[in-house]
Amino acid sequence: MSKKTLIVIGNGMVGHHFLEQLAATPAAADFEIKVFGEEKLLAYDRVHLSEYFSGSTHADLAMGTADWYAENHIDLCLGEQVTGIDRDKQTITTPMGDYGYDELVLATGSYPFVPPIKGNEHPNCLVYRTLEDLDSIRASADGVKTGVVVGGGLLGLEAANALKSLGLEAHVVEFAPRLMPVQLDTDGGALLKHKIEELGVQVHTEKATTEIVEGEDARLRMNFSDDSHLETDLIVFSAGIRPQDALARSCDLAIGERGGIVINDQCTTSDPHIHAIGECALWSEKIFGLVAPGYTMARTLASVLNGDQEAAFTGADMSTKLKLLGVDVGSIGDAHATTPGARNIRFNDEQAGHYRRMVISEDGKTLLGAILVGDNSHYDTLLQYALNGIELPEQPETLILPESQGGAPALGPDALPETASICSCHNVSKGDICGVIDAGCSDLGSVKAETKASTGCGGCAALLKNVVDSELEKRGVEVSKDICEHFPYSRQDLFNIVKVNGIRTFRTLIREHGKGHGCDICKPAVASILATCWNEHILATDHVPLQDTNDTFMANMQKNGTYSIVPRIPGGEITPDKLIVLGEVAKEYNLYTKITGGQRVDLFGATLSELPDIWEKLIAAGFETGHAYGKSLRTVKSCVGNTWCRYGVQDSVGMAITLENRYKGLRAPHKVKMAVSGCTRECAEAQSKDFGVIATENGWNLYVCGNGGMRPRHGDLFATDLSDEELIRTIDRVVMFYVRTADRLQRTSVWMENLEGGLDYLKQVVLEDSLGICDELEQHMADLVGTYQCEWKTAVEDPEKRKRFREFVNAPSKKDPVQQWTTERDQRRPLVEGEPA
Amino acid sequence: MRARISWDVVCTVDDLVPESGVAVWTEDGPVAVFYLPHRLPALFAVSHTDPFTGKNVLARGITGDLKGQPVVASPLYKQHFNLQTGQCLEDEEVTVKTYPVLLDGNNVRVEVPTVNKESAAA
Fold this sequence. Notes:
The complex is a heterodimer.
Chain A: E1 4-9, H1 13-23, E2 31-37, H2 58-61, H3 66-71, E3 74-78, E4 84-86, E5 91-94, E6 97-100, E7 103-106, E8 110-112, E9 125-127, H4 131-141, E10 146-150, H5 154-165, E11 169-173, H6 186-198, E12 202-204, E13 209-214, E14 220-224, E15 229-232, E16 234-237, E17 241-243, H7 246-250, E18 261-263, E19 274-276, E20 281-283, H8 291-305, E21 320-324, E22 327-333, E23 343-349, E24 354-360, E25 367-373, H9 379-388, E26 421-423, E27 428-429, H10 430-438, H11 444-451, H12 461-474, H13 491-501, H14 506-513, H15 522-534, H16 549-552, E28 556-557, E29 563-565, H17 576-588, E30 592-595, E31 601-606, H18 610-620, E32 633-638, H19 652-663, E33 672-677, E34 691-696, E35 699-704, E36 716-722, H20 724-741, H21 748-754, H22 758-767, H23 774-786, H24 791-796, H25 799-802, E37 821-824, E38 827-830
Parallel strand pairs in A: 1-2, 1-7, 2-3, 7-19, 9-16, 10-11, 10-16, 11-12, 18-20, 32-33, 33-34
Antiparallel strand pairs in A: 4-5, 5-6, 8-17, 13-14, 14-15, 21-22, 22-25, 23-24, 24-25, 26-27, 28-29, 29-31, 30-31, 34-35, 35-36, 37-38
Chain B: E1 3-12, E2 20-26, E3 29-35, E4 43-47, E5 62-66, E6 69-73, E7 80-82, E8 98-99, E9 101-104, E10 107-115, H1 117-121
Antiparallel strand pairs in B: 1-10, 2-3, 3-4, 4-8, 5-6, 6-7, 9-10
């Protein structure tokens, strides 16, 4: 059967989500898929657009990668605008030619509405929707003082935040009597206005702009209908969106009276081969200007194309929870009490700046809607009551009263029905979470990976954690953090016990705080903690038996019982002389030689007894141990930087060497990798490391908690434009906080995801010192850096320690008879089982 | 061919590593000798060969106790073996060979069955 052609017009968040959903179904194989995007950039996250001004790049905001499209055989045509659709011939037209389709998906989104005000065509009148728009705003804001946003809705306030982060004096002009008129009521709007003004954004409500003219003190002057005026250097219109339905109109698809491509429950338009999803689509007379409903349409359409007869879009919840300019705002369901007979309960604390309103049904049994300003901590509970029709308690006001005044605690996860939606971005219900837990997920991180819950806007993080913990507990999965049967403590508890009581040996710790003799779980974990606290040699008599075999012999055991050796090559920089020594040693001991991914050289096939002799030679040539065997810093990869590269803006090699020498030898809950790139081209792949540093014109951007491996994760942007000193101080703090608080064998990514509050919390602790521990963290790191020793140098110089490396203690010259070798591509390798010698 | 038993001196106390193992060569092949000074008896000897892989590595595993049994964890794939019985805790069909071991003054002796070479030659 020849494949059908599916064309998608529009590569925004919803268009991309549709492709992700479709790619996961068997139907993906039935289609040749082509995507046309008007913008030159791959789909990106418009919800977090204002982060573009606080350091995020397109790559940070991007939803997918070009590689993903290639892997899924999706032909991606960016910057190619579709100019016409011929429904009879089933073709579309672009400046490059005509393309036939069997099925066509319109995901063209919306465009910003610019009110018809005289003078609105001035070059400093702008809109806020695309990254290109943001570039224009940045250019316009250069060297001027004031900016105005027209529109006090959700997007308008986001835009005001963007102007503020550009250093402008920001104003918001709103036609309605209050901010966010759709989501908030009079009291809520008034409180939000007050809070935003406290943050330095001036709010002007009930202002109708009549014209925009040349200004006297600034570029422009806005004249209002009440004869007042406001001078400003630039104006951003954010007065709502209109569905981008021009293409659909031009080929006579059914269009709503006020715009929007009419779709049915299957997201199909008046033409059975043309479908529409997202903000361009009009369902049941409604346009949905939020991303979650768009995603729901995308999922529905993917199911429809996959042959699911039942799939239907049945509307979407428009509840929202946001942080606007740092102020919590929440709006749920029928916030304006339009349901007949609806009643209100209000709580308004002007002193604390908290406003909460509940809209309840006439019989007082169900929650219809709610408004929250200043504190969203009640949002999750209220949303669950509203969405699931859970019967309200007898005194429903307790739900919004502060606990000190008799307020009820948050709704426990047990009270939620299976159908309760936990993550609306990815449509994950409590039942879905129970399902993956039953299928084997046993912690928060794996539930997130499996369901994608809480990986969209992240608003449901706290709720998700509660549900997962409660469900695990119900199944008798030990949510117990006990490290093993010998200690009733988590790794973090053990760390504190060791530190506070000054415990220096495993023996003392288990005698005083545990039971039995220990095992291969707790011994290496405690060895790591002792190393972090006191930094004694890992082969000291008390510590030897605690180490994993790799640490015991300071080399990596391979499958045939021999070891590999990785000398440290800081930043991947090595002199020809040292390179020659590596070659000579490898040749002398017949070691298989391979370059690692971390810009080092790995020498394989050394026997236990050869290790000290090999290291003696390496140390004499100036090498140090590379800790490839330890749960510790491995390597700091670097690109060549501005010393050689035409594009480099900082000395990335120099910084990589500084970082590698600073953190080498540090013991951590798991291995730690770092990289430094000399410019935004990112040749060192720093974003896939636990700590990634990328040079900017002004210093360094720091990304944290990335990793490669089985579940790759890009690091999160943590801080921008840091000086050398600031960079090192920040890394010191994050590393130490990780080492002290992570679970055993927990990489930084999972650690961060499991911190309640996640990245924001980590930023508060490290950048704002919210726990008041930063001095201590820095001091602890300084102590560790000051007591570094090359473990191999100490070991080869100590005859007692060298004794450990005898293969057979009573037969020094005896070779292990089970090691058998062959030659492949001119190098020695172990024989595999059954292979003739 | 007739098997005989001998108590071979395999090493001295100074060769042992507390709470850990060392490998020795015996007439019966490689043997791992563990010294757990906080237990009675404190000495254990099992085959040095990991039964799952056939590689000679068990002396390099981490020792400890699980549910009261003295164990060593294979450094390759982490299965646990009871040091007294040789029983693998993860797979009841797998065992490692155990050897009687004792301290004779400063010498560590392991009882190994060996092939009687004289009668083999006869």
